[in-house]
Amino acid sequence: MYRTELYSEMETFKGMKSKQDIRRPVDLYKPYFKVKRYIDVVGALVGLIILAPIFFMVALLIKLDDPRGPVFFKQQRIGKGEIGFGMFKFRSMCVDAEEKLAALLEENEIEGAMFKMKDDPRITRIGKIIRKTSIDELPQLYNVLRGEMSLVGPRPPLPREVEQYTDYDKQRLAITPGCTGLWQISGRNNVGFEEMVELDMQYIESISLKKDFEIIFKTFSVLFGDDNAY
Description:
Elements: H1 30-50, H2 52-65, E1 72-78, E2 84-90, H3 97-101, H4 125-132, H5 140-145, E3 150-152, H6 159-162, E4 178-180, H7 193-205, H8 209-219
Parallel strand pairs: 3-4
Antiparallel strand pairs: 1-2
């Protein structure tokens, strides 16, 4: 039922022929998002409780590896409606990583408005491990509790990335960003920016609780080491 009401003032995705046919979700189906919010809160609370021992161990290892810096890293991201928020992660890089980024932009290994570098010199020893297993992303459960993120949704971009977005690309910001999504289970760092945008559009088109649970279950395999993660 909700798929016929999901977008109240736009054409359906299937009717699009090119990137010039801009889609702008205006009134997303509210019952779905109410149920999803309930699932997000319960899932985040349960996750934080169950994962508490891992949080403690990772925090200890980060401090032993690099005592100078904090355990957590708060990074500005752009969420639903292009509203900024501070996204939490376990710190996996040196304390001055942001200052060193400008000198590395030319070595970006992904086309488009993202930066990825397999042998990023800013990553610490423990950082390589927690990034490989995606453990560095676990503190985002706190963002879920705050309502800034969902368990499933598009990846929240950096402000400098959004500055390069076209109107077409900005449509991925129509819904709440997620801790995981189609991008993470579809090749991750081997997926380019344009492909990531299309995956997000695909997710929004077929949005449902069933799809969300499928993505969550497939994400668990990433926690045990994904060759595409770095």
